[in-house]
Amino acid sequence: MTDDGLFRDDDVIRVVSREGLLIAAGGVASLLQTAHPKVAQGVYDHSYTADDPVRRLRNTMGWLYAVQFGTREEAARFSDLVTRGHGKITGPGYEANDPELQVWVMATLYAVAVQVYQLVFRRALTPAELEEYYQQCKVYATILGCPADRPPADYPAFRRYYAGMLRDLEITDASRAIADQVLYPKLPAGAGAAARPGLAAVRLLTAGLMPAPIREQYGWTWDAARERRFRLLVGALAAVYPRLPLRIRTAPRDHYLSSTRRMLAKLDAPRRPALGVTGATS
Asked: Where is the ER-bound oxygenase mpaB/mpaB'/Rubber oxygenase catalytic domain (predicted)?
């Protein structure tokens, strides 16, 4: 990858985030974020997730990979686009650029990535790795304008913050509506039958990874049978996924990062002059 980015290839944030399997757990992070009533209302009022989930995924992953693996310029430019877009997302009692919400979104991205990585690779990150990774993940908030002193200072402080949020959050009808959109997305014509098994697995993974207090508020059924299916799914992933060649595991990163670079290049391209104005041939 590039050598002028925010991070080095051996930084924990890159070692963890390069794994394409994390995308399958994106619903967990997303629905943890919208368990916060202010995030939920902003998404419900303004997001295009329901109408175009593929575009939403492309933009989210494109931004994350630009920050994690792109050049400093790419990370800054895409983040500026996100910040300006979020500036329009305001409503009664919420605004997307609120540091409180930026910290919560950052927290969910970190917590879910750690959870999935450790489950699939059957390796607990060391205290030093957890601390390093946490400090690096603060960029998800600070690069969007969140003051550097707003996120919890270190990993132990983060754990206290996160546990308190899971205890105190009360999800809303908007949260539940968004959950239906995320778990039962509109798909391109003809893709429904082929995608059905994969979506069922993603729903099981999402429910199994979701912290119990939030899962209960969403009203998802969770019993011994679903727990067994979840454990079988995670076991299968742990047996197969780490043995795949790295180039396959990182293919989603390479795809979305290439897409991001094409998008940024289009923004740089000069507009072609219209006929009849200066520069047009007669």
From this structure: 14-238
Mapping DSSP onto H, E and C, the string for the chain reads: CCCCECCCCCCHHHHHHCCHHHHHHHHHHHHHHCCCHHHHHHHHHHCCCCCCHHHHHHHHHHHHHHHHHCEHHHHHHHHHHHHHHHCCCEECCEECCCHHHHHHHHHHHHHHHHHHHHHHHCCCCCHHHHHHHHHHHCHHHHCCCCCCCCCCCCHHHHHHHHHHHHHHCCCCHHHHHHHHHHHCCCCCCCCHHHHHHHHHHHHHHHHHHCCHHHHHHHCCCCCHHHHHHHHHHHHHHHHHHHHCCHHHHCHHHHHHHHHHHHHHHHHHCCCCCCCCCCCCCC
What residues have CB less than 8 Å from 136, skipping those under 6 apart? 7, 11, 12, 13
Q: How far apart are CA 270 and CA 73, in angstroms?
A: 19
pLDDT one-digit tens code per residue, 193-239: 667 788 999 999 999 999 999 999 999 999 999 999 999 999 999 99
- Residue 7 structure tokens: 């991070």
Q: For residue 45, give its domain range.
A: 12-177+194-261
What is the spatial distance between Cα 22 and Cα 24, in angstroms, rounded to a whole number? 5
The answer to whether position 282 is within a domain reads no
Answer yes or no: are the C-beta atoms of 204 and 229 closer than 8 Å.
yes
pTM of the model: 0.91
Residue 116: HSE in the Cβ half-sphere, 13 Å Cα cutoff: 30
- Six token digits for residue 195: 């995608």
Average pLDDT of the chain is: 91
Kindly state whether residue 106 falls inside one of the protein's structural domains.
yes
Q: Does 182 reside within a domain?
A: no
Instruction: Give the tens place of pLDDT for each residue, 247-269.
Output: 999 999 999 999 999 999 999 87
User: What is the count of structural domains for the chain?
Assistant: 1
